[in-house]
Amino acid sequence: MDQLAGQVDAQKAAQKEQEAAAAAAKADADKKAADAAAAAQAQPPAEQKKVGGRPAPEFGGYFGAIAGARRHVMNVADALSWIQGVRSFKAEEGRKPKNSEEFMKVVVTKYDLQLPRIEADEEYLYDPNGESDGDFGQLYVVKKQTAESAPPGAAQTPGSNPAPSGAPAPK
């Protein structure tokens, strides 16, 4: 009887060790997945710049504080227009714009948004799942992709129309 009880205790101890090892492995895998997801969300791809995301000044002291305050005010001013447009759209439609095309065609034109000036080779990209100061998505400035500069098989940016082979690209 004692021998049987010893075997049962040994089996229970082995089972607890296996459960503990499996729980530790699962916790480690969850931590790695969470770290990877946080790293992916923390930084958009290098070619995307947030509208209203000027870099911080690289000097400190009194002038650094003044430059930092100016940067903050300019970031808020840049983001205010498009956030108000999305807020108005959301109040009327009950949802955020679905994509960049709907943002540019409906929100910008309907509410006559004054977006910050961008270079000729750049365009705006609205991400409804991006983060901003609320549930409004995120507006980025990205380099335009042309059919010549995009690698074969690359996804086109929202709103762009790939030209059929042999036809010139639309301008």
Question: Can you give a write-up of this model?
Answer:
By secondary structure, the chain is mainly alpha-helical. The protein has a domain at 49-143. 50% of the residues lie in helices and 8% in strands. It is built from three helices and three strands. The chain has helices at 2-42, 61-93, 100-110, and strands at residues 49-50, 122-127, 138-143. The chain has a three-stranded antiparallel β-sheet. The protein is elongated and about 85 Å long.
Q: Which key phrases capture this entry?
A:
disordered C terminus; 171 residues; 8% strand; 3 strands; 3-stranded antiparallel sheet; mainly alpha; elongated
Describe the structure concisely for a colleague:
The protein is 50% helix and 8% strand. The protein has 171 residues and is mainly alpha-helical. The protein is elongated.
Number of separate strands: 3
Mean pLDDT: 75
Going across the biggest sheet, name each strand in turn: 1-3-2
Helix content: 40-55%
Q: In percent, how much strand structure appears in the residues?
A: 5-15%
Total count of helical runs of at least 4 residues: 3
The biggest sheet amounts to: 3 strands, antiparallel
Task: Return Rg in Å.
Answer: 26 Å
Structural class: mainly alpha
From the N-terminal CA to the C-terminal CA, the straight-line distance is 88 Å
Poorly predicted segments: 149-171
**SSE order in H/E notation?**
HEHHEE
From the spread of the alpha carbons, the general shape counts as elongated
